[in-house]
């Protein structure tokens, strides 16, 4: 058994043990991309909508810094993240955007989703670019998009399991040219600490080679800075996301003010991140 897999099993054991020994709690809705707009629907039928606006100290996804500026030395890259959701009954469409102020990293996501009780299924497209390149991207050029399907299921109102697989992306190829179907698996357990805040423990990994979204450890550049090694994609099973987050929501009339802070470690890149995020949703 490899060291990486042993580390992941140990993390998963902690999460599952917590779920087995702690009382049932209410969880904060979440999906693969934790920044995606979360909405609540009061009825199973009829039209509904919601909107949000978040500020984050950095944009992390699956344990990776999406500003592509490296890790420990560049963990502060403030991001503006607005989103809007439209739904009818159990079906919904999410539109979400990220703009990173320092790196100028931009991303636009479109989610098509279905939610029923503890089950959520989504299909989403990502359009992204860095700096001015984003404005120059051809909207209908397939090379600029990726298509990913996800499934989430929550057990005991506190233990969420997540799986995602990418089916379309121009860079998602193995060395032999075959489709890699880059995937990601995650388990997250949420514990309420009275009325103070929720603690979320997460362990996430790539079950096999994922050229679409994975990179190797940081390497030193000619100018002395460090950046993730996107030319040498890790192969096989890799743990990419071990995190502890504290979540709190403040409510005022129909407005909600979520606040999140915590620590993220990516064993694959050996990068550490401190995260702070705050916003408003309605």
Summarize the structure.
The chain has two helices and 16 strands.
Write the layout of secondary structure elements.
Blueprint (H helix, E strand, L loop, with lengths): L2 H19 L25 E10 L3 E2 L2 E2 L13 E10 L2 E10 L4 E12 L2 E12 L2 H4 L8 E11 L3 E10 L14 E11 L3 E10 L9 E5 L5 E4 L8 E15 L2 E12 L4 E11 L1
Antiparallel strand pairs: 1-4, 1-16, 2-3, 4-5, 5-6, 6-7, 7-8, 8-9, 9-10, 10-11, 11-14, 12-13, 14-15, 15-16
Structure description:
By secondary structure, the protein is mostly beta strands. It has one domain: Porin (Beta Barrel). Helix content is 8%, strand content 52%. The chain contains two helices and 16 strands. It has helices at 3-21, 133-136, and strands spanning 47-56, 60-61, 64-65, 79-88, 91-100, 105-116, 119-130, 145-155, 159-168, 183-193, 197-206, 216-220, 226-229, 238-252, 255-266, 271-281. The strands form three sheets. A twelve-stranded antiparallel barrel has the order 1-4-5-6-7-8-9-10-11-14-15-16. Strands 2-3 form a two-stranded antiparallel sheet. Strands 12-13 form a two-stranded antiparallel sheet. Strand 4 and strand 5 (91-100) form a beta hairpin. The radius of gyration is 18 Å and the shape is globular. The protein starts with a helix and ends with a strand. Residues 13-36 and 38-43 have low confidence and may be disordered.
